[in-house]
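## retry 2 of 3
previous attempt timed out at serialization; input unchanged, resubmitting
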Amino acid sequence: MTNKRILVVGGVAGGASVAARVRRLDEFADVIMFEKGPHVSFSNCSLPYHLSGTIKQSGQLVMMDPYEFKTKYNIEARVMSEVLKINREEKTIAVKDLKTGKEYTEAYDKLFLSPGANPIVPPLEGVKNDNVFVVRNVVDIDKLNKFVQSGDVKDVVVIGGGFIGVEVAENLKEAGFNVSLVEAMDQIMAPFDYDMAQILHKEMSDKGIDLILSDALKKIGPDAVELNSGREVKAQAVVMAIGVRPETTLAKEAGLNIGVTGGILVDHNYLTNDKNIYAVGDAIEVYHKLTHQKTRLALAGPAQRQARAAADHIYGKPSRNTGVIGSSVIRVFDLNAASTGLTVKACEKAGIGHDFVYIIPGDKVGLMPDSNPMHFKLVYEVPTGKILGAQAIGKGNVDKRVDVIAAMITMGATLEDLKELELCYAPLHGTAKDVVNFAALVGLNILNGDFIQVPVAKVRELVESNAFIVDVREKNEYAAGHLINAVNIPLSELRQRTAEIPKDVPVYVHCRSSQRSYNALMALQHLGFENICNISGSYLGICCYEYFNDLTSGREKIVTAYNFK
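## retry succeeded, writing output
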């Protein structure tokens, strides 16, 4: 019996993981990995952190070189090797050695495609200038860093507000540059709903990023960029981070099927329409567990799981493909932001009946010196209470909370399950009723009709229509900043002052974070008030939601003063 010959196209997360897994399953297989660039197995998610010096040398980004692959794993990693063509009938690939220009063929028993995705660069004037960069690999980030550190660069414009754009902008700002970030949409970070993204907008603006939303790049000059609005922004360097497009050239030319989203079409074992060719990673189309639709997901974790499952399939080891839900986390200066599953806007697009909870509890016991508010949004299905997604932003461990929700989603859990979830607790780490338990309790109250809520996004409309709003915070809190038309009836005085609250119009109550206002609402309902509504997120949430748009538009504020504590 001859040894299996396994060829892998692409040497980063998906490709390197395939090769390593094949070797663990089969010591005798011939495993050859081809990478067009000069490095394999580099940490592409860490690339932006070289710009701030967090990662001092670009070489540190390379996790393993071809010599290590050969000596430790008996895997041949060929860098600077471009795969030009797949000949499916002969089961061979054509390869070009980019160092020598020599072309040759290699035969395979099984072929794995993990070519990744390419940065999107629209055909605009100036995009090919020497001062324009993308960030895909170690060579790219090294080239960008050397250019901006040359001494001639003060102003940098980043185009695109996704993960790469935000991280590049932050790290360039940390390195001392004047940074503008331009995003064509009305918010950065698509995995977050608009209300949650406002918290990130505030953080970036407060830290000195010139954040330009709802505007797009028109052309690039040597010292500035022009936007569609006509605005000019100084820039001696421009980073294109609009997004990525799956690299499907090889697959298309070989006659492999492409899916509806533009990624390579694979089955549940990551097999293409050729029984000897698999595909994994950013280049493929995947199945979303919650929407039941095809999607693309350019994340390292799913790529590694796909790689293992695909390699296992060769050797008859079954894998359970449960689809993707999309879990991610990012640091934005002093804040951490994580999300999983569906946002409200994704539910609306998919036609899924839903509601949400937005709470701002402390991330640990308030007595602890590093306790901070955590903005937490939980999305669930109506009427089943099935958990659909979560978003969390704060200075604390948002990833822990969102990871809990990701696990619950994967298990098909409901609000009832989340309410009963037993989690570890100590004052230094959390609260006895954890953020996620708290969210489940509020969600069940809303689902069961115990009270109704209105989101922070509707508060401006309420203020402008002069709705009756009751602020149940204490007098000193109200004096430090309040909604311009709110009536202050502290919770401590509420039962004695009910005569001041009308019963013939809707009444909206709020406090700092909605906990006291919930208690006020329940008391009023018991006292015969039927038209009471809690403002979700309350004053802290309102301030976070309104701040950035107030700052950038110059519109009239609906608060007398902001309060973010």
